[in-house]
Structures are given as C-alpha cells and as structure tokens.
Automatic annotation (TrEMBL):
Cross-referenced InterPro entries: FAD-bd, FAD/NAD-bd_sf, PheA/TfdB_FAD_monoxygenase
Domain called FAD-binding: residue spans: 7-354
Gene3D superfamilies named among the record's database cross-references: D-Amino Acid Oxidase, subunit A, domain 2 (3.30.9.10), FAD/NAD(P)-binding domain (3.50.50.60)
Name of the featured protein: Single-component resorcinol 4-hydroxylase
Swiss-Prot/TrEMBL keywords: Oxidoreductase
GO-annotated molecular function: 3-(3-hydroxyphenyl)propionate hydroxylase activity; FAD binding
SUPFAM superfamilies: FAD/NAD(P)-binding domain (SSF51905)
Pfam family, one: FAD_binding_3
The keyword Oxidoreductase is assigned to this record: yes
Domain of life: Bacteria
Length: 528
C-alpha cells in the first residue's frame, strides 16, 4: 500500500464524478478517481441539461466543446393522443446563468468534453478498470480497497487478480444508483414511489431530420411517448411499456421501427440502442458518514420526465467541491461540510417530487382519466408548474433582514473589462463574487475585508455602457444583465457563492457590511 494520502479519492466516473474531479483538480487538489468500466461509457442516458449546468461546465472550461454538439431547445410541448397541445414550456430565452435556458445533448460527447477538462489538471489521476470493494474509515483518512478488471478479447470484464489500497483525506461515492459506497456504509435510502418501465431508443441520424413537433411528450393513454433531439446528430424516443406487454417483443428492432414509424424509418437513422429502463425515485436520508460523501445518483434518483437527474448530481458536485476546497486548504472548519446535505437534499427532493408528479400525469393509461386530465388542461384548471427550487437552508443569510434573492441563482452577464469581453466568469474569474451597483470599498469594516480576502472574493461593480468612458478599469455591463437584475429584484448588492447561489443581498448600501459579517458568522457558527 502506498503511503500517499490523496486529498480526495473518488469512486465512479460518470458525468457527476467527472464534473467533481474537474472542479477539485482546478483548485489544485490531489484526486484519484477509480472507475470499474475500462473506458468512458459510450451510450447516452441523460439528454437534457439547463443553463445552471452549462455555467458549471463553463466553470471547468468545457462549455465551448460541449456547445459544438448541443442543441439549445426553444420549446418543449405536451400533446395528447389527439394532437392537442396541453402545455408549452418556453425555453427560447437566456437563463439567469448567462446561457440558453435548456439544452439537448448526446451524453457521450458531453462526457468526452468533461474528460478533456479533467485531463487539463495534472493533480487528477483517472484509473479505469478498478472496482471499489472495501472502505475503512480512520480518524484522519479513509482507505479504499480496489480490484482490477480487464476487458478480454470477447469484450467481457475479467478480474486480473490485481488489488490495491489507496488512501484519501476524503472519499466521494459518485458511483451511481446502485452505489457500492451507500450500501457498504449502510446509508439509509427512502423509496419515494414511482415504478414504470419505458423503452428507450437512441438513434444516430443519417442527415438532418426535423418535425413540426420535435421535442416533447405525447400523453396518449394508448402509449405515452416522448421524443427529442439528442444534440445535433442523434435522437431519442422513449415509450411506456403497456400493461401485459412482452419485454422480448419490445426489445426487437422491428417493434421499435414500427412504434416510431410516424417519425422515422431505417433510411433516416441507425438504431444504436434499444433498452428497457424502470424509472424509480428515491433519496438517501444520510449523504455522508465520517469522511465519506455521496454525490449524484448515489444520493438521489428520479424518473427522467424533467431531465434533471444528472443536473442535480452536477449541482451536488459544485456544492461539495467548493466546501471541500475551503476545508482542505484549512480556510474553513470541516463542519462546513455538514451544510452539503442540508442544502442539497431539500433542493433535489423538490425536484424529485415534481418529476414523480409530472411522470404520473404523462403515464396515464386509463382513457377516462386521460380525458379528464386533457379537459383540465383545456379549462386552464391545471396550475402552472411551481418555480424551480432555491436554497432554503445551510450557508445562506437567515437573518430577519434576508433579501428575497437569498438562495436563488445569481446572474451572469456579458461584461467588458480591461479590453477583455465575454461572460463575466470568463472575464473576471470564478469563486465568491460581491456584485454591487455602488462602490463598496469605503463601507467595509476590517472584519468584512478580511473575510472577502480569505475567500478570494471578486468585488464587481458593473456599470452601464453609457458611463463607460468615465471610469477607468470599469467592468462594463455590456448586455445590461446586472442593471436589469438589480432593478427587477430591488436589490443593490449581492454576495454570490462559488456555486452561483446568492448568500444574501441588500437593498440599502449601508447594509452591505452587516451582510458580509453575517456570512462570517455563518462560517464561524459551524466552527463552534
Ligand atoms: C432514460 C434516461 C434518461 C435520462 N435523462 C436525463 C436528462 O435528460 N437529464 C438529466 O439531467 N438526467 C437524466 N437522466 C439521469 C442521468 O442519466 C443520471 O442522473 C446520471 O447519469 C447520473 O450520473 P452519476 O455520475 O451520478 O452516475 P452514473 O452515470 O451511473 O455513473 C456512476 C459510475 O460509477 C461507476 N461505479 C459504480 N460502482 C463502482 C465501483 N464499485 N467501483 C468503481 N466504479 C463504480 C459506474 O461504472 C459508473 O460509471 C436520465 C436517465 C435515464 C435512465
């Protein structure tokens, strides 16, 4: 056994593990990743992600590569079996994160881009063909036993007989829905209901194919189905396994082509995968134990009707990464890590509940119930979807004066600074941001200054384009994002965390110092 103690040992190199490895590598930490597959997984699962996730990909330097194949979808519709539109989701807008609201992608391309991002960081080693088999926790580190696998000439995974043990100050289980880490540590799991099987077809198009109805769900009680583009070159169809249907028949290519005949024929595309998934939902009620943490599907599972499973895992990674960074650099006490589950679990629970609810609506196979549903949509009796969840617990401003933007995602606009122009994170850098429409400098106490310095906070005062000539070193709010944000939210300064969530905001500039001191209290409360 080597004596080296990695900062973080990670099990699993799906999209969530990749994102976490890139974030930790970017901050200079020694990370060893172990993945039981012998290479990147070549087939897609997820197809959709949103603006927040694209900003996270931007933060690890792979947004440009991802953009090459993704498809910014402009709308997503639900129709019934008669072709009537039940609801339209308007995605044709730039999200608060500075990227288009929603994207459709081919997951293997995304994973390639994330892998390239990880490879930029020399402190991260990715070890394929190693399966985690035993975890032992010690006072100051965790040790992990691994068994090596090789792919034989027939393409089968075979144990080589090689084993090794590695140590990390922290261990992260990014090892998917059947998480070895979760089960090995007996971390309890709550089943949140839902159990429906769907056939999933992935196709590689032979040329561009577009339909009037390109992306959406057909809530037909005879066979609920959804179709959408997977990036620029692939397409997905998913349809429900109906009561009494024979799985073997459903997995025959001729059955697939017959089902999607209204849209596609073998001349249009190659069928690259046909599989049955059983969609379930669940949540770990404990996301960590001692020095071990769960991220992604290891911690939560949801049916894919909102396209948010991977997105939620990437949010976990972003949340955990900046906290581990501060703790590993001795800038914060390990107690900060307790806010990880506190923040992430309720956020993802809201999304799971909504995904289950939406799934039940679209999976209706009783014609009468489906007709009643359609009528409710026609009558406008279906309430609009709730707003996307925000952070409500953890390290956010909990004071009586907390501004309403607290816990929401902070904005990213296009800025110009010292001749450089682009999205704010690219131009000014990542990490904590104090964004204001006034000069904060003279309003800060020594305590606030110290904290901002410790956290390497970017102090940003975007000014409107019209004022540009008067201010040297200005950060110019080229597209007016910050001006609009401040006026729409009646706020004049916000303190934004490295995961882009707003710690808190103030309307009156005289309150800015107190806000920063409340953040300091938030950190020190966890040190007591
Ligand atoms: C049909 C379908 C459609 C979906 N659509 C969307 C969507 O549109 N948008 C969205 O956001 N999400 C979607 N999801 C969900 C999304 O695919 C998952 O949430 C996401 O892949 C989870 O990523 P992960 O990295 O946590 O886990 P995984 O991708 O499962 O990766 C876990 C990795 O850990 C490895 N591993 C496991 N055990 C061990 C071990 N003992 N040792 C070493 N390695 C190990 C595995 O080999 C695997 O590579 C969809 C899912 C399905 C099934």
């Amino acid at each position: 056994m080597s004596d080296e103690i990695f900062d973080v040992v990670q099990i699993g190199y799906g999209p969530v593990g990749q994102a976490l490895a890139a974030m930790l590598g970017q901050r200079g930490h020694n990370v060893a990743v172990f993945e039981r597959h012998s290479s990147l997984y070549a087939l897609p699962r997820a197809g959709h992600f949103d603006h927040e996730i694209m900003r996270i990909f931007q933060s690890v330097g792979c947004a440009e590569q991802i953009e090459e194949d993704v498809f910014p979808a402009t709308k997503y519709q639900w129709r019934n079996g008669k072709g009537e539109t039940l609801i339209t989701f308007d995605w044709d807008q730039v999200g608060v994160s500075g990227w288009m609201s929603d994207y459709l992608m081919f997951q293997p391309y995304l994973e390639n881009a994330l892998h390239h991002a990880v490879q930029q960081y020399p402190t991260v080693s990715v070890n394929h063909g190693w399966e985690a088999v035993e975890i032992t926790t010690h006072a100051d580190h965790v040790s992990l036993e691994l068994r090596q696998y090789m792919v034989d000439a027939q393409g089968r995974q075979q144990a080589t007989g090689e084993t090794k043990t590695v140590k990390g100050r922290y261990l992260v289980g990014a090892d998917g829905a059947n998480s070895f880490v979760r089960q090995h540590l007996n971390l309890p799991w709550t089943d949140l209901g839902f159990n429906e099987s769907w056939v999933v077809l992935d196709l590689k198009q032979k040329g561009p194919v577009h339909y009037e109805f390109d992306n959406g769900q057909i809530c037909d009680p005879k066979r609920p189905l959804c179709l959408f583009q997977l990036g620029k070159s692939h397409r997905r169809f998913e349809y429900m396994v109906m009561p009494g249907e024979d799985r073997e028949t459903l997995l025959r290519p001729e059955h697939a082509w017959e089902t999607i005949r209204p849209w596609m024929a073998p001349d249009d595309a190659d069928l690259i995968r046909q599989i049955i998934y059983t969609f379930k939902s669940g949540l770990a009620s404990q996301w960590s134990k001692d020095r071990v943490f769960l991220v992604g599907d290891a911690a939560h599972l949801m049916p894919p009707f909102l396209g948010q499973g991977m997105c939620s895992g990437v949010r976990d990674a972003k949340n955990l990464a900046w906290k581990l960074d501060l703790v590993l650099k001795d800038k914060a006490d390990a107690a900060l890590l307790e806010t990880y589950q506190q923040e992430r679990s309720p956020h993802v629970k809201e999304i799971i509940d909504l995904a289950v609810q939406v799934g039940k609506i679209s999976c209706m196979v009783d014609p009468e119930a489906a007709e009643a549903r359609d009528q409710a949509f026609r009558d406008g009796a279906v309430p609009p979807p709730p707003p996307f969840p925000i952070l409500r617990d953890g390290l956010i401003d909990h004071s009586a004066e907390a501004h309403s933007v607290t816990g929401e995602l902070g904005p990213q606009g296009q800025v110009r600074h010292l001749g450089k122009e682009g999205r704010c994170d690219d131009v000014l850098g990542l990490g904590w941001q104090l964004i204001s429409n006034f000069d904060v400098d003279e309003l800060l106490s020594d305590g606030s200054r110290e904290l901002l310095q410790l956290l390497e906070t970017r102090v940003i005062r975007p000014i409107p384009v019209v004022d540009e000539p008067n201010v040297a070193d200005a950060v110019v709010d080229i597209d007016g994002t910050y001006f609009r944000y401040f006026s729409a939210n009646n706020v004049s300064a916000i303190l934004v965390r490295p995961d882009f969530y707003v710690f808190g905001g103030v309307q009156d500039k005289a309150d800015i110092d107190a806000l920063i001191l409340r953040l300091r209290d938030g950190f020190s409360k966890r040190n007591d």
